C-alpha cells in the first residue's frame, strides 16, 4: 500500500512538472520562434481538428497551380498538397530552418513528390516577386513569427490578384492565434474572409484576394 507521504510527494512532483510546462509555454509565447529541429517529432503527431483533408477542402488546390507553403516543418501537409496539384503544379515550401528544409527535401524525394521546391527563407522577407502564387498557406506557423504583421504583408504581396490565403491554428499550440483578431488583421490588407472550418480552438480559414461582394461560409 502506498503511503500518504509517497502520494503527497508524487502530487508535488506532478504539480511542479505542470508549472514548469506552463512556464515554458509562456516564455515561448512571449518570445516567438519556430519549433527547434531537435523537437521535430512533436510536430508529426496526428492533428484531429486541422487535418490534411480539411486543409485540402479549404485550400482547394488545383492542377497546374503554383502554391506556397510557409513553415512546412517536417512536411506534414506538404506531400498531400503536392499530389493535389499534379501533374504540372509546383509547391514552394519555405522554412527559416535549414534542417527543416533538408528534411522536407529528403521526405518529398522518398514519397515521390518531385514538384516540391524546399527553400530556406524568412516569412518576413519572402524571396519572390509580387503576384507569384495562386495560393499560400501556413499551419501553426503565424504565431511563431516575431513580426506577424510583416509576414502578413509579405503573404499579401506574393499572392496573385485573385489568390487565396489559408491559415490554420489549433490549441494547445502556445503560439495559437485567435480567429477574430486574425480576420481583422488580414482584411486590413485587402483580402476578404471567405470560409472557415473547425472550432474556436482549432480551425482553417481562407481569405481571397479577388472577392469583394459575396457572403462567406463558416462551418463549425
UniProtKB/TrEMBL annotation:
TM annotation in the entry: none
Domain Methyltransferase type: 68-167
InterPro entries in alphabetical order: Methyltransf_11, SAM-dependent_MTases_sf
Molecular function, one GO term: S-adenosylmethionine-dependent methyltransferase activity
Annotated keywords: Methyltransferase, Transferase
The UniProt record lists the keyword NAD: no
GO BP: any one term: methylation
Origin superkingdom: Archaea
4Fe-4S as UniProt keyword: no
Protein name (Swiss-Prot/TrEMBL): Methyltransferase type 11
Amino acid at each position: 500500500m502506498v503511503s500518504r507521504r509517497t502520494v503527497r510527494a508524487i502530487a508535488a512532483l506532478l504539480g511542479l512538472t505542470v508549472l514548469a510546462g506552463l512556464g515554458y509555454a509562456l516564455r515561448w509565447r512571449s518570445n516567438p520562434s519556430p519549433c527547434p529541429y531537435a523537437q521535430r517529432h512533436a510536430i508529426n503527431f496526428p492533428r484531429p481538428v486541422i487535418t490534411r483533408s480539411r486543409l485540402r477542402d479549404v485550400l482547394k488546390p488545383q492542377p497546374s497551380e503554383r502554391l506556397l507553403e510557409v513553415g512546412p516543418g517536417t512536411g506534414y501537409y506538404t506531400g498531400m498538397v503536392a499530389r493535389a496539384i499534379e501533374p504540372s503544379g509546383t509547391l514552394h515550401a519555405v522554412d527559416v530552418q535549414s534542417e527543416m528544409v533538408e528534411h522536407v527535401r529528403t521526405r518529398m524525394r522518398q514519397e515521390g513528390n518531385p514538384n516540391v521546391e524546399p527553400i530556406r527563407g524568412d516569412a518576413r522577407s519572402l524571396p519572390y516577386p509580387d503576384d507569384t502564387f495562386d495560393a499560400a498557406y501556413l499551419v501553426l506557423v503565424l504565431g511563431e513569427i516575431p513580426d506577424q504583421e510583416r509576414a502578413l504583408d509579405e503573404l499579401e504581396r506574393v499572392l496573385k490578384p485573385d489568390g487565396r490565403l489559408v491559415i490554420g491554428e489549433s490549441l494547445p499550440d502556445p503560439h495559437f492565434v485567435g480567429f477574430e483578431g486574425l480576420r481583422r488583421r488580414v482584411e486590413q490588407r485587402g483580402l476578404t474572409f471567405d470560409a472557415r472550418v473547425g472550432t474556436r480552438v482549432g480551425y482553417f480559414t481562407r481569405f481571397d484576394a479577388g472577392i469583394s461582394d459575396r457572403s462567406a461560409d463558416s462551418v463549425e
